[in-house]
TrEMBL record:
The keyword Nuclease applies. This is HNH endonuclease. InterPro entries: HNH_nuc. Residues 202-250 form the HNH nuclease domain. GO terms for molecular function: endonuclease activity. Keywords: Endonuclease, Hydrolase, Nuclease. It holds the Pfam family HNH_2. The keyword Hydrolase applies. It comes from Knoellia remsis.
Length: 307
């Protein structure tokens, strides 16, 4: 797929703010299939992906949708406000149609962190563009996985391009990794708890760039009950991937990093045998039983001197 295909079609990703006094407007948008704006925003139009984020000290991303219409001017007799708590009552002038609504597990993400991870403007407007290069970071941070083949199909359908071989595009020739890697877990309260427990540093590398730190489950996610700190470890994104692929594990008895023999990259091999940084509180440290289960799932572990 040509790398700039989506950009040529005018698709973009934006964040739309919801006043913290009226978070229920997200539910109204889903029910009504539209969103009202106070001003016309250049470039906002059909095909754009919009993320809805509340304002205030407890700001969080609630969901996302796809824009279906141009910004339409509202007639004076249209009821603009959706709730009596809306401080902007009567001030809406434009409306966009929306579809493909998707609720997100509530992720409390400061705007400064978004700016750092995506290079978005420091000033957060009611509608703010996310640079194309920063979209994968935002999706990863919110636990969303891209399927480029599904995206390509949507482009073909919407643009009616007959010069593209659809069957060839949907034939997935990638080497697929386990679903535990494809579905990046560790969102919301679970990640927040691990960030606090591990002093916002990767347990293996010590990396402190918060945008690349992920909450890894030691034993696979099976619902909220598995989101305990003792079943998690804070890892840099690439270390998390190796951990989920069972190419890296942490010894249950000595809390040292072990790297699979097939991983030959020197930057990873140098980590072999290194003790991880563990939380100060014993109750927040990885549980022995969980680490032992992960060790056992690594077929190479005991054969290569593991505990």
């Amino acid at each position: 797929m040509p790398p700039r295909l989506f950009e040529r079609l005018g698709m973009a990703t934006r964040v739309i703010l919801i006043d913290y006094h009226a978070p229920q407007h997200w539910d109204y948008a889903k029910r009504n299939g539209f969103w009202d704006l106070q001003k016309h925003w250049n470039g906002l139009g059909p095909g754009d992906t919009v993320y809805f984020r509340t304002t205030g000290s407890q700001a969080a991303f609630l969901g996302r949708a796809r824009v279906t219409t141009e910004q339409q001017t509202l007639a004076d007799d249209v009821a603009h406000a959706w709730s009596s708590e809306d401080s902007r009552r009567g001030g809406y002038r434009y409306r966009i149609g929306l579809t493909d609504f998707e609720d997100l597990p509530v992720v409390r993400l400061s705007w400064s962190e978004v700016v750092q991870g995506t290079s978005a403007p420091r000033r957060l407007n009611p509608v703010t563009l996310i640079p194309e290069s920063g979209v994968p970071w935002l999706e990863r941070r919110l636990g969303i996985t891209r399927d480029p083949y599904a995206q390509a199909l949507n482009v073909v359908r919407e643009d009616h391009r007959e010069d593209l071989d659809v069957e060839l595009m949907v034939e997935d020739r990638r080497v697929r990794v386990p679903a535990s890697v494809v579905l990046r877990r560790g969102r919301g309260p679970f990640r927040d708890a691990l960030l606090e427990a591990y002093d916002r540093r990767c347990a293996v590398t010590g990396a402190s760039t918060e945008g690349v730190l992920e909450a890894a489950h030691i034993c696979d996610y099976r619902g909220d009950h598995t989101d305990s700190v003792s079943n998690g470890v804070l890892l840099r994104a690439d270390i998390h991937t190796l951990f989920d692929l069972k190419l890296l594990t942490i010894g249950a008895d000595d809390a040292r990093v072990r790297i699979a023999p097939e991983v030959q990259d020197s930057s990873y091999r140098m980590l072999d045998g290194r003790p991880i940084s563990v939380p100060t509180s014993a109750t927040q440290r990885p549980a022995h039983a969980y680490l032992a289960a992960h060790n056992s799932a690594c077929s190479w572990y005991h054969a290569n001197g593991g505990d």
